[in-house]
Give the backbone structure.
Amino acid sequence: MFLGEYELRIDHKGRVAIPAKFRDAFRAGLVLSRGFDKCLIVYTMAEWEIVADELVSLPVTQLNPRRIARFTFSGAFDLEPDRQGRIILPPALRQYADIDDEVVMVGSYSHLQIWAREHWAAEKQFMAEHAAEIAEAVNI
C-alpha cells in the first residue's frame, strides 16, 4: 500500500530515489509510464500486469481503447532500481511531465505517482478547493 507525499530531487544523471519504505516492493523491478494527468506512474511488476491485462482486453476495433493502449504502452519503461533505490527517469517521460529537478512522489495505494513539484502544488490546491464536489461526483 503506497501512501503519503515525498519531496525529492532529480540528480544530474536524471535519477530519483524511491523512498526507503517502498523499495522492497520494487526489488523485482518496476514499470514507469505516463499518467493521464501530466505525471508519471510507478507500478510494481504485479500491478503492471493487472493494468496491462485490462488494456489488452479492450476492443481493438474501437479508436479510444487503441489510443489509451498506445498512450500507455509507448510511454512505458521497465526498470530496476539501483542498490541505492534510484531509478532513471527517461528524458521523454521527464519532458512529458515537465520534470526538471524537483518532484513530489505521491502514494496512490496501488502505485506511486511522480509529479513536477509545481504541477503537484496546483493539483493539490485544486483538490483542496473542490474536494466536496469531487467526492459527490464519484459517490463517496
About this structure: Helices lie at 45-56, 63-74, 91-96, 117-137. The domain at 5-137 is CATH 3.40.1550.20 (Chemotaxis protein chec).
